[in-house]
Write a structure and sequence with these properties.
two-stranded antiparallel ribbon; 2 strands; elongated
């Protein structure tokens, strides 16, 4: 069995292979400040091995639906010069637990309201709390005015 030098930095290709994250995604995460590298004299990126754990945390958080901005804020609160610890993960997971609980409550409320809206058929009557709260579109007449907010085919001609 080959001995691994745990202090030897990793190339971006090694990070990609070991983490299962595409090189382009690693570049993107670096651009967003989620991971850090440095350049060799030959201008090649090198990463400390702790980047593997950071990438794993990023991927888990994304799978949970945490936006990258939220992941970045959470990672900014942690020391950048060491591997993430179990205590760090506990801090992150507690924070994200609260966010996920809020999102679940919002989605449950949306799901429960969605049944009322589907029955209306046009999404512009006063009962639609999702697309036309308070029947704001009533003054423009009947019809699905907001189905395509970008002005596509569903938008009525004026």
């Amino acid at each position: 069995m080959k001995s691994v030098d745990r202090h030897k930095p990793l190339t971006i290709g090694e990070v990609s292979r070991r983490s299962g994250v595409a090189v382009s995604a690693i570049h993107f995460y670096e651009h967003k400040g989620l991971v850090r590298s440095w350049r060799t004299e030959g201008n090649q990126r090198r990463f400390h091995r702790d980047v593997l754990r950071r990438l794993a945390v990023i991927k888990v958080a994304q799978k949970l639906g945490i936006p990258l901005a939220g992941i970045g804020r959470a990672m900014d609160a942690l020391p950048a010069n060491r591997s993430l610890t179990a205590e760090d993960w506990k801090q992150l997971s507690n924070q994200w637990h609260e966010e996920l609980t809020e999102r679940i409550e919002q989605l449950t409320q949306l799901r429960d309201q969605l049944g009322d809206c589907i029955g209306c058929g046009c999404l512009s009557v006063d009962a639609c709390r999702l697309r036309n709260p308070g029947d704001q579109l009533a003054e423009d007449g009947a019809g699905p005015r907001l189905l395509d907010p970008d002005g596509g085919e569903d938008r009525p001609e004026r």
